[in-house]
Specification:
Length: 387
Amino acid sequence: MLRSPRVSPLCRSTASRWATIAALALIVGGCSGDDGSTGTTGDATTAATTGAGTSSGTTATTGDATTGTTSSGGTETGADTTSGTTADSDATTAGTTGSTGTSTTGGATDGSTGDTTGEATTGGVVDVLPSAGCGLEAEGGHFSGLTTLVDGVERSYDLFVPTPYDADTPHAVIFSYHGVGGTANTDQFRLDKNSAANDGFSINVAPQGWPSQEWNENHFVPFNLEASVQVFDQVLDKLAAEHCVDLNRVYVIGHSNGGQMAFHLGCLRGDRVRAIFPSGGRCFSYGPGVCDPYNGPNSQQCSGAVKVMSVMGEEDVTRHADEEATLAGFRARQGCGAQTEPVEPSPCLEFQGCNPGEEVASCRIPDLAHALWKPGFDPLYDVMMAL
């Protein structure tokens, strides 16, 4: 029998819900200021890509898409510095049992049917939609260097599975995206060191940027955003087929270039992602094809309904104006008005009048540059459970 995930009675209010979300969104490894220093702008530091483990059940794609042009090699000002603490880079992959077929909620680009299995069951505030992998045994732990093939390129990611792993409990899925210069191994938002996986709440995915430790967002690798979105699709499909996940609780977090990726997935995969928590990111400018749904006929059109909480430092000159424009696009698409109400944690504001399930909130942090909001580092995952 499938067991609904634990939901705390402390996570019922909108204010407390956003409090934890903001904190979770900012637990960023591999970004500026994340080495114990104060939240100030730092220089990008390039770390080696992980690959200590061997891949387990690589997913091959269909289609003949080709990769776009490579990055210009520039780095964002103060975008990301690696943390002095790394995860177990020598971890090996688990011999998980593969299942036939995939279980998705739509939007897959690898030729899968997108069919879901099972029926949604009520668990707390949100209905639980168990994946096809429920009931299949799998190992718990940190698995480094897993790969999926996209456009002929082996794209790697790290996976964090609760230990012990319960094959009958649908887990939330958290994708965390590093910024430029970060890696999957050093930049997994400390998810292997907090209770998100350890208490059995979520399975966490830390993809690795490519080709130069970055994401295929227009500013860096022009017009090849589809490749990074396809990585998301394929990894989620594989995870849903081999593990017990709740397809109604898929979250995306990221800082800087990773925050941009979170915004993009919130638009392009709003039918698969429940909520996004970008930090120091944007996805509005640099031409059509980005996630502003009103950018013109050639723009990527958004789909589904997604909750948004964006964090931006008041002193962040790297992405400040673009983040405002990005939020304006989401607000217009999701029915939000201009009026705001305070929500926790202060000084976050939630726009009023948004469509149900499509709330948009903005956290502008005084005296913070393109760095992490460290007072938000005390997340309570009970709040995310309530989404």
